[in-house]
């Protein structure tokens, strides 16, 4: 069965890998990115199976217009993948206001608006898949990466609610939660030098070297594709042994902390006779 995909952030990294794998399996792709010429090689190779449009996902009006155009031009889109995003390494205090505004606009608000733009089309056609690129960082947190975690924890909560809202329409959602994937993501991330009070502390650390990134970009995206076309996709897709280990550790610790407060939590209940 030939499927049609819509992918944001298709210029490099996992977005580009996804476009390549989907085209290689014979599907069609509507790819969006800031500079369409970055996909010229794929356009020459695959012809009209690749539909490309320029898009800055932080421009909500343009985002809605491109989504509407893609569904109109291609007739049906089976899988919508929200992939655009970036990172900033900085302590919460050292972040600038523009950095905060830009990351929330790109990683969180744009993801929400893409889902809102796509859902009416998916509902009208009787269903489809909505995939959101998250991270193991949507379930745990590291020092000097707080703003990135804001966007990932935020989009996880949004999709948890959205999944139940749209399930009656045949729309299935999946949060993709990779670990340390060997891509250009960390190289491209902005870095703010730590200010004096934080030097030598938990936030004052070197970027992760490539040899410590244990997850394959190709294998990660292959697993994403398998989940997207499966009859029963998971609501969360954990990818990478590192992600599984760190997430289960963090979740167990959080659950233990909550369980330990059972008796104290009850003190806030209405008194009973």
In the sheet with the most strands, the strands line up as 3-2-1-4-6-7-9
What structural class do helix, strand and pairing data support?
alpha/beta
Shape, per Cα inertia axes: globular
Question: Could you list the spans in which at least 5 consecutive residues all have pLDDT below 50?
Answer: none
User: Ends: how far apart?
Assistant: 64 Å
User: The biggest beta sheet, please?
Assistant: 7 strands, parallel
Keywords: Oxidoreductase
Protein name: SDR family oxidoreductase
Organism: Amycolatopsis rhabdoformis
Family: Belongs to the short-chain dehydrogenases/reductases (SDR) family.
List the helices and strands and how they pair.
Elements (H helix, E strand, L loop, with lengths): L3 E4 L5 H12 L3 E6 L6 H7 L3 E5 L5 H15 L4 E4 L5 E2 L7 H28 L3 E6 L12 H21 L4 E8 L6 H4 L1 E2 L25 H13 L6 E4 L1 H19 L2 H5 L7
Parallel strand pairs: 1-2, 1-4, 2-3, 4-6, 5-8, 6-7, 7-9
Helix pairs in contact: 1-7, 3-4, 4-5
Please describe what this structure looks like.
The protein is α/β, with parallel strands linked by helices. It has a single domain, classed as 3-Layer(aba) Sandwich (Rossmann fold). It is 45% helix and 15% strand. It contains nine helices and nine strands. It has a seven-stranded parallel beta sheet with strand order 3-2-1-4-6-7-9, sandwiched between helices. It has a two-stranded parallel ribbon with strand order 5-8. α1 links the parallel β1 and β2. The protein is globular, with a radius of gyration of 20 Å. It starts with a strand and ends in a 7-residue tail after the last helix. The model has no long low-confidence stretch (mean pLDDT 94).
